[in-house]
Amino acid sequence: MVQRGLMRLWGGLLVWLTVATLTFVITYLIPANPAKLLAGAQADPETVSRIARELGLDDPVWLRLGRYLFHALQGDWGVSYATGQAVLPAIFERFGATAMLAVAAMAVYVLVGGGLGVWAALRPGTWVDRLIAGLAIAALSIPTFWMGLVLLFLLAYHLSLFPLGGAGTLWHLCLPALTLGLAGAAYYTRVLRQSMTQELGKDYVRAARAKGVTEYRVVGHHVLRNALMPFVTLLGVDFANLLGGAVLTESVFAWPGIGQLAVQAIDTLDIPMIMGTVLFAATVIIVVNWIVDGLYVWLDPRLRHGS
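Above: the chain's sequence. Below: its structure in token form.
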């Protein structure tokens, strides 16, 4: 178990360094001069050169990369060109809003997707199963940003049931959470139905039923526990992605999270903030994957005993 944890830790660090390096290289290749953007369109060449020297933009690329990685590992992710604020504190200021949206969307994933998936698996081949499958395919076929615009127009603008955007109350959270949650719930419905259907056909289920074990215990204690393995993996990855920032949804609903911050940084070519939001998303994904790995050990006794 300790060796497994150390290997995961080392692997996560390598992934983090790789993402940081690739992000730096991509932003370095952007055909724009950050010093000129900061100085303004009417700035003279001397001013632009001075700003470039202050930012270290005249240094060789390998030196700039090494300096960036060294500072990033210590939590110094640079300063925003647009606001002059330190990147990491600026991201943490937006993290609360993104985390709230992520938790609400995951609740839709689990309650709607998990509930419909179990219901369909227990009614295979019936009209209930076919109806749930049809609704899931329809929801998966709709682009998330388009669904958000439709919900915004119908429920907020036309019927005035929800605010048009922004944050502040739980009502502001409902539409963006539904937008993110419905597409994810549709996918989770199909995953859990397939996983449960496979488990229900296995020998241990038939043996339990033959021994007189109640259907509730067979499904709830045995089948569902084993069927949740792929479900937990997907939940961990998707939750990490949501924490990294749901870019399109936050933009559509003007939700003040990390996704909206990333869009604003791209619009203003705020390179330190762009790199910071990408690196933060990678960090969250790595950490959540560690947590999911621990949940795997809890769900599967074979891992606890080193099998």
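The CA atoms of residues 28 and 110 lie 41 Å apart.
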